[in-house]
Amino acid sequence: MRVTLSNLQKMAGSGEKIAVLTCYDASFATLLENAGVDVLLVGDSLGMVVQGEETTLPVSMDDMVYHTRCVGHGAKKPFVVADMPFGSYQQGPAQAMRNAAKLMAAGAQMVKLEGGAAMAKTVAFLVERGIPVCGHVGLTPQSVHQLGGYKVQGKGDAAAQKVIEDALALQQAGAGLLVLEAIPAALAQQVTQQLTIPTIGIGAGPDCAGQVLVLYDLLGIYPGKPPRFAKNFLAGTDSIQEAVKNYVRAVKDGLFPASEHCF
Ligand SMILES: Nc1nc(=O)c2c([nH]1)NC[C@@H]1CN(c3ccc(C(=O)N[C@@H](CCC(=O)O)C(=O)O)cc3)CN21
Ligand SMILES: CC(C)C(=O)C(=O)O
Ligand SMILES: [Mg+2]
Q1: Which of 10, 61, 100, 106 is the most exposed place for a label (fewest CB within 10 A)?
Q2: Which residue's CA is minimally distant from atom 8 of ligand 2?
Q3: What is the ipTM, given to two decimal places?
Q4: Arithmetic mean of pLDDT over the chain
């Protein structure tokens, strides 16, 4: 039986941490399913780790549809979330609906889009038409050129307040999950407490309802300097399967992220 949004909601309510990993192909989807990963995110990070681009901006809808279909073929149990790529939803609700439908048809159970209160109308439009939506606030990589780099967000009272308001606006609009990326752990804890929907953190401390990591960072195969919040779980193990199981266990036990992975 496939994991559902209501399963994830219940897990969050009972304090069971949600283990999420990015995934881009069928073979890894099967491996992650067998290792007990709850949610697979077909992330637009594939532009960087699969395509070798410097940012996620060049990723197309066709790329996301292709990888979502690949993941869908490999995974029967995990809940599959697909990123809406840069330029596929920012124009407005009608454009977002057209493109979200393609990802749902390709095998996603939910779409994710970046942005806060400014995206609330678009989120509500999709949710009212039957498409579950995951929000994404804090460090939003599709805005890297506006943010001035991949930097921690929500530092200082005004910036923290903005993250809280964005999170509440997305929940109000009907978002079912919310990714918090690269914000101070104390702020992520506050957001998680104020929301009724599960938060999924990456560089957002241990108090989120779940954690997500880029698969290639977990395997230590991303070229270049990994983000502070990444951890190589393959180091010291003999197999990818074991590394992923160790990640799932560390998330479930609240041992990942540790303080050295947090802001
Ligand atoms: N392999 C990979 N892992 C990711 O987590 C990831 C991607 N790719 N591609 C899309 C975005 C880009 N992300 C990134 C990339 C780099 C940093 C980074 O190096 N941050 C520094 C600076 C922090 C600061 O000074 O504010 C760090 O030390 O973590 C953070 C997020 C997260 N996502
Ligand atoms: C890092 C996660 C949250 C993501 O959006 C991606 O992999 O694209
Ligand atoms: Mg993404």
Answers
A1: 10
A2: 43
A3: 0.96
A4: 98
**Ligand 2, CB within 6 Å, residue ranges:** 22, 41, 43-45, 83, 179, 181, 202, 212, 214
In contact, 64 and 44? CB cutoff 8 Å: yes
**How do strand 133-138 and strand 79-83 relate by DSSP bridges?**
unpaired
Average pLDDT along the chain, 263 residues, taken 10 residues at a time:
97 98 98 98 98 97 99 98 99 99 98 98 99 99 98 98 98 99 98 98 98 97 89 96 98 98 97
Per-domain residue ranges of the chain? 5-261
User: Binding site for 3-methyl-2-oxobutanoate: which residues?
Assistant: 44-45, 83, 112
Residue with tokens 């036990």: 253
Q: What is the DSSP letter of 156?
A: S
Taking the C-alpha atoms of residue 57 and residue 48, their distance in angstroms, rounded to an integer, is 9
Q: Could you tell me which of 191, 188, 186 has the C-alpha nearest to residue 171?
A: 191
Tell me the CATH number for domain 5-261.
Answer: 3.20.20.60
Does the beta carbon of 134 lie inside 6 Å of ligand 1? no
Residue 167: which H helix or E strand, with range?
A: helix 157-173
Coil/strand/helix, residue 166: helix
Catalytic residue set: 181
The CB of 155 under 6 Å from ligand 1? The reply is no
- Whole-model pTM: value is 0.98
